[in-house]
Amino acid sequence: MLPPNPARGEVVVTLAGAPRRLCLTLGALARIEAALNLADWSQLPDRIATLSAGELSAILAALLEGGGEAPEIAARATVPEAASALAAALAACA
Description:
The protein is an alpha+beta fold.
């Protein structure tokens, strides 16, 4: 696997026992907005604090797809892996 492109906001994390590339693309943002039913992005910090396991999986699937990975991998990730991956992806965009 090629190293992540930080200029694009890519990050590589371990999910389901293998390195996986995540990227917060515009498409991923749209999928996350829909999954969380956000009226606008200012609601995101509060929603992240109260995510259900299903919502966390949906966000991870969007980030995986943005990174060119199969979104189905999200279903095989543990909750700690998914939460850590989400934090890494958001930090890469900061």
